[in-house]
Specification:
The structure holds three protein chains of three kinds. Chain A is built from nine helices and ten strands. By secondary structure, chain A is of the alpha/beta class. The longest helix of chain A is centred in the middle third of the chain and has 17 residues, at about 100-115. In chain B, helix 1 packs parallel to helix 5 and helix 2 (about 40-55) packs parallel to helix 4. The chains are: A alpha/beta, B mainly alpha, C mainly alpha. Chains in contact: A-B, A-C, B-C.
């Protein structure tokens, strides 16, 4: 918990036409950490992600990444700077093969993270190597030539994460990575998160699945009606009466 | 002064037909999210259906006009079933391309059936003009305006107060939840498309009573209708009605005082200006579209 | 594996056909159709770049064809030598598309499509009404014929070589783009704009570049067209020209390099040989569009490639093992 946080969100407020979706949310993510963001549907979790990554302009507040104020910056620039994300729905190119998907991401990774944005100094073999490395990491080697759209759900989720990982992120935001997964797929995903962590990627994860959240998180934050309700270690949060009342009590510990 | 009032009267009549067409289009575009490029041809067909039933078959207006709307609604159901439904959920481009193909088919079949010579539907009421002050008003213009307002008002009431209308709006706001509530989403979409078709046809039929109709009139009209829909705010029923009248007036003034040759171009420049500077329309989006936009 | 063997065949065979064509096709009318096909092939290669590879449905493509035609005719009338006039037509079309795209590309998908049609109708109204510049509905007669370094190319069999050379250049440019990072990024943008942006792809820039390059190609085609026919007609701005180009791209195979060329030949020659009147032609085009979108969105060439087992994977230009051609489905435009 020492040193400058990688990602710092301070008093972030998001409004849609007068409706306040997120109300003065704050978050700190340090190197090597995994922080989970939980809360009932409509609590503003995805809005918070969209705002951090530049897709939605916040009404107030500040986002600082690696010491830079990136509030309201264009999503493309944010993505190039090493703050990457996945999407809740499709987070890959459905009509391309696994390899085609990874190559595209690896190319962008090489351009923006390996060559400082200079397209001409990108080497084809380094793109291939990067794509191959990521393919191993997300364990999709056996699916190399399959079209992404026909992959099983769990593999699609891993592919989506792989695309973001090819950008060599310092911080990775995962939006409901477990949605629709079965128990064994979730187990694989927990292992993948651990591997990503070893490579030095810090993560913020939005998720409902409590077993997953408990398995990966250093800290858990609870968002309720757009406000931060509680924050602490997984054990602290699950025993917090306000959280039980607002979320766990009604949803019975996830889906 | 005299002339200005005449221009206003013309603008109101043509604006009324645009309003009808646009109300149909805003429902199809805003609610089913189908960019219906064939909407202009449905408008054109309305004119020719009325022409056929009145002139070629010889039915009186009170029978021919409702028959025109009924045939148009049936056509809408058929088109939805055969062409639109199978494409649902495949993205906007697929719908755009398909309805462009459809518009080509309808327009050119109409050219073969009714030939390119412009037609006029005989006015169903007395031809002697009424003079109000110094303005000459043809009774048929008044009839057209009244019918346009009446049909829009009935449709608006239908959308707001009937069970079907509420189902349409609920489906628009959240198709998944609507399906869970036992609403048949496919049926709602069919009804919406058929209703939109009937409204377009009504616009074309009324236009044919005042101005000339040709098989190719739909092409420019559809762009006008999109102008109106976007001006009025996507999915905004009353917005489309008001904006329709507005565009009719602007066009009438432009044709008289600027240049008849550029009158369409002026309408399209308004369209581009609105799209670029005020994409939410001057009258605002329907509230639910605002939320769906995120 | 078969690549080193295939490459010479793939270069020599088309070259032989191109050179031999005017000697084999002795009928002037057929030769004329081939030249027109070649010109449309240039225009639809540009449209394919925009629509097939970048996933942007621009229905104002014919306006840039027309701008190229009038631009070149006017430049030549003002005294520029023919080659320079053609270049002016191309550049003016590209510049016009740059301005238009800067404004229109901010719109979400459906609005972009509608706006491009509105734009083309405005251009058409100008061509019809600015009589002192364009001679209005009468069109411009007496446009200089095609020539190159003093050699008269006005006859179809001579014009053919110039048109094919221009077509080869245009196809080569598109092929080169597809093999560059821009090609990978265009396909990514078409597949999902959202995901592309999340990987740092500046889709706004990319769309702009693709529209400008594609429209300049339309402008080049228009310029060649106007000098070949020696007549500039406002008919080039009619929407049926756009429909014809869409049918060529869709029918041939959107997002394949050769499909649209095939489409250009079939849909230039077909209606003429069948002597189909305009009404029937457009009805048939309408039916073809509806059926293709529903049952064969990959087009004829796309289907052939898939049958050959070469097109089951969509274009992956950076992959040295991948082919030039690949099947792609209809792009979905995310909003």
């Amino acid at each position: 918990m020492t040193g400058q946080p990688l990602l710092e969100v301070d008093g972030l407020t998001i409004e849609y036409g007068g409706l306040r979706a997120v109300d003065r949310a704050s978050l700190r993510l340090h190197a090597d950490q995994v922080v989970s963001l939980i809360g009932p549907n409509g609590a503003g979790k995805t809005s918070l992600f969209n705002s951090i990554t530049g897709y939605v302009q916040p009404a107030a507040g500040r986002v600082t990444f690696l010491g830079d104020d990136i509030t309201g910056r264009d999503p493309v620039r944010i993505a190039r700077s090493g703050l990457n994300r996945t999407f809740q729905k499709t987070s890959f190119f459905p009509d391309l093969t696994v390899w085609g998907n990874l190559q595209t991401a690896a190319l962008e990774g090489e351009i923006h993270r390996g060559s400082g944005g200079r397209v001409r100094s990108v080497h084809e073999d380094r793109v291939q190597a990067r794509a191959a490395r990521v393919m191993d990491l997300v364990d999709l080697g056996t699916r190399r030539d399959d079209q992404a759209a026909v992959l099983p759900y769990g593999a699609q989720r891993r592919l989506g994460i792989g695309l973001a990982v090819a950008m060599a992120p310092a911080v990775l935001l995962l939006d409901e990575p477990c949605a629709g997964m079965n128990a064994s797929e979730i187990q694989e995903l927990i292992l993948l998160i651990a591997r990503l962590r070893e490579t030095g990627i810090a993560m913020v994860v939005v998720e409902h699945q409590m077993r997953f959240v408990m398995g990966i998180s250093d800290r858990v934050m609870v968002l309720h009606h757009g406000q931060m309700l509680a924050e602490g270690s997984p054990a602290e949060v699950t025993s917090n009466p306000a959280v039980i009342e607002a979320y766990l009590g009604r949803q019975g510990g996830g889906q | 002064m005299n002339e200005i009032l005449q221009v206003v009267a013309n603008g109101l009549v043509i604006g009324g037909t645009y309003a009808l067409m646009a109300v149909g289009l805003t429902v199809i575009f805003g609610y089913i999210n189908l960019v219906n490029m064939a909407h202009g041809e449905l408008y054109m067909l309305g004119g020719f259906f009325l022409y056929t039933t009145m002139v070629l078959i010889g039915l009186p207006f009170v029978v021919a006009f409702p028959a025109t709307l009924a045939v148009a609604a049936l056509l809408g159901l058929g088109l939805d079933h055969a062409l639109i439904r199978p494409l649902r959920g495949n993205g906007e481009m697929v719908g755009i391309l398909t309805t462009i193909g459809l518009s080509m088919i309808l327009q050119n079949v109409a050219l073969l059936v009714w030939d390119p010579v412009p037609k006029r539907v005989p006015p169903p009421i007395a031809a002697t003009n009424w003079s109000i002050g110094s303005v000459e008003l043809a009774p048929v213009q008044v009839l057209v305006a009244l019918l346009a307002v009446g049909i829009i008002a009935i449709s608006g009431w239908f959308m707001q107060s009937t069970r079907t209308g509420r189902a349409v709006r609920a489906t628009f706001q959240d198709p998944d939840t609507a399906a869970l509530m036992g609403i048949s989403v496919n049926r709602v979409y069919s009804v919406t498309f058929a209703g939109g078709t009937a409204l377009a046809a009504a616009g074309g039929a009324l236009l044919g009573m005042v101005f000339l109709i040709t098989p190719t009139m739909g092409k420019v009209a559809v762009l006008k209708a999109f102008t109106v829909v976007i001006l009025g705010g996507l999915g905004n029923f009353w917005g489309a009605a008001i904006a329709g009248i507005l565009v009719g007036l602007v066009e009438s003034f432009a044709a008289t005082y600027v240049s008849a040759g550029y009158k369409d171009a002026i309408a399209f420049m308004i369209l581009l200006a609105v799209l670029v500077f005020k994409p939410q329309g001057i009258l605002g989006r329907a509230p639910a579209v605002e939320q769906a936009g995120h | 594996m078969g690549r080193p063997l295939r490459t010479p065949v793939m270069v020599v065979a088309p070259l032989a056909i191109v050179v031999a064509a005017p000697f084999v096709v002795t009928d002037n009318f057929y030769m004329h159709l081939l030249v027109i096909s070649g010109i449309f092939a240039i225009a639809v290669t540009g449209l394919n770049l925009v629509m097939g590879y970048s996933g942007l449905l621009s229905l104002g493509h014919h306006a840039f064809f027309g701008i190229g035609a009038y631009g070149s005719a006017l430049a030549q009338e003002a005294g520029l030598p023919l080659l320079l006039a053609v270049l002016v037509g191309t550049v003016v079309a590209g510049a016009a598309s740059l301005v238009t795209a800067l404004i229109l590309l901010r719109l979400r998908a459906a609005f972009f499509v509608i706006a491009t049609i509105a734009f083309s109708e405005i251009v058409r109204a100008i061509a019809l009404n600015w009589v002192s510049l364009t001679n209005g509905p009468m069109g411009m007669t007496g446009v200089a014929p095609l020539s190159l370094f003093g050699i008269d190319l006005s006859e179809a069999r001579m014009a053919w070589y110039l048109v094919v050379a221009a077509l080869a250049a245009v196809v080569a440019i598109v092929r080169w783009l597809l093999h560059s990072p821009m090609g990978t990024e265009m396909v990514a943008m078409r597949e999902s704009e959202n995901v592309a942006r999340s990987l740092g792809i500046d889709t706004g820039q990319l769309a702009l570049r693709s529209v400008v390059i594609g429209s300049a190609m339309a402008g080049l085609a228009g310029a060649l067209y106007v000098h070949y026919l020696q007549f500039a007609s406002p008919d080039v701005f009619s929407f049926s020209v756009m429909i014809t180009m869409v049918v060529m791209v869709l029918g041939g195979g959107m997002g394949t390099l050769l499909g649209p060329l095939l489409g250009a030949v079939v849909f230039t020659g077909g209606p003429e040989l069948l002597r189909a009147g305009d009404d029937y032609r457009l009805i048939i085009y309408g039916v073809i569009i509806v059926l293709l979108v529903r049952f064969m969105p990959e087009g004829v060439w796309g289907r052939v490639l898939r049958r050959l087992g070469r097109g089951d994977r969509p274009v992956e230009p950076m992959d040295p093992g991948a082919d030039d051609e690949g099947r792609v489905g209809l792009p979905e435009m995310s909003s």
